[in-house]
Amino acid sequence: YVKNYEVWLEYGLPSIHNRTLALINRGHIYADFLKAVELTRRKKDIKICAHVIIGLPGESKEDILATAKELGRLKIEGIKTHPLHIIKGTKLEQFYRKGKYQALKLSQYLELATEFLEYLWPRTIIQRITADCPREFLVAPQWISEKNELLSKIEQTFQEKGSFQGKLWRAGQK
After folding, report:
1. pLDDT tens-digit readout, 113-128
2. Contact yes or no for 169/119 (Cβ under 8 A)
3. What is the pLDDT of residue 56?
């Protein structure tokens, strides 16, 4: 199949931190992701995409950047990332309404997303950097609905910082 088509496998990896994976009921640990990567890389010409969520409950900036550094170390070929968003009717909405979780502010996401990208392998293809959710289901943050504006602000943030994807990749490997 890979002789005639470009083949990608996408693995959900919201975080490399097992405590976070347990908290959000992922049903796997980080070692399971590593095993999947190892097995996939034994097959020639299959590319890997990791799906990461920025802003998970209990994660600090350092936790989020540790995930970026690890994906950079692994030289993952593609990444889909987006901010955690709160959808109506979920447990996360209940936590949010009770004040137990705060959605990221746009300024926080811009800082985290651009720094996250700085630690990735420079050749990683960014397949997604924001989220989609129908407005009638979205509780927060509302700014994810303005996708084009968000993409422009990410680009603007990089320009203001004088930065780019992969800028800190080698630093993250220490």
Report:
1. 999 999 999 999 999 9
2. yes
3. 96
Dihedral in degrees, nearest 10, Cα atoms 42, 73, 83, 93: 70
- Quick one: pLDDT at residue 44? 84
- Specify the DSSP class assigned to residue 141: -
Extract the tokens encoding 171: 């630093």
Q: Which residues contact residue 119 at a Cβ distance below 8 angstroms, ignoring those fewer than 6 apart?
A: 65, 68, 69, 71, 72, 168, 169, 171, 172
b/e per residue, 58-89, with b = 16+ CB within 10 A?
ebeeeebbbbbbbbbebebbbbbbbbbbbeee
Indicate yes or no: pTM above 0.90. Answer: yes
Express each pLDDT in 57-95 by its tens digit: 999 999 999 999 999 999 999 999 999 999 999 999 999
The residues pairing with 140 across neighbouring beta strands, listed in sequence order, are 86
Q: Does the structure show a pLDDT above 80 at 174? A: no
Report CA dihedral (42, 44, 46, 50) to the nearest 10 degrees. Answer: 40
Cα angle value 95/53/109 (rounded, 5°) = 85
pLDDT at 2: 87
What's the distance, CA 47 to chain centroid?
17
